[in-house]
């Protein structure tokens, strides 16, 4: 029980909530598109069953992710993916990524569409939540994961429009979210067991100063690279 009273646990809780808020919007759009042709009487059922199936599937995926992240080099790969996800968050998208989502007027067909589409789009959530849970350490990683996914349910089902409006009105939220993903990527990278083979005196693991230093470097890398790519993408539009 004392594990749940540590600062590391509640820091990870805050990170998971932030990840769910930032990365749950796409999932909400998928649910809305897949269920839009259902009759009014079945639409709520489609949303709830589709979300429940997607959450269960994501728990299974994150369980495997937490296990795999203990293998050498996989934390490094996961950290690089997270850095890219954080950078993408700061670069505006032009294309509608959801155009291929097919709506159905049949309840279970819509539920299947939600689950399959959520599976395809959940890589960012899975890696980020697994990284945040691992950062807490201890034996309570799966409770953290389950808590994070429970938090994501109301965010995905009910709060997505509010979150999108907040992010439109306060772009700083998106910037801080991208930097958070960079922070988690740095923390994940520094904990990869493969580093013990290449760096001296690494058997005991990184010191707190090294861990925080790499985490800060990851956050700053996302900020600088994301802003640079966003400016580069905006330049042709401004010239036109």
UniProtKB/TrEMBL annotation:
Cited Pfam families: TerC
Keyword Transmembrane helix set for record: yes
Subcellular location: Membrane
UniProt keyword annotation of Membrane present: yes
Keywords: Membrane, Transmembrane, Transmembrane helix
InterPro entries: Integral_membrane_TerC (IPR005496), Integral_membrane_YjbE (IPR022301)
Record family assignment: Belongs to the TerC family.
Protein name, UniProt field: TerC family protein
Phylogenetic lineage: Bacteria, Pseudomonadati, Pseudomonadota, Betaproteobacteria, Burkholderiales
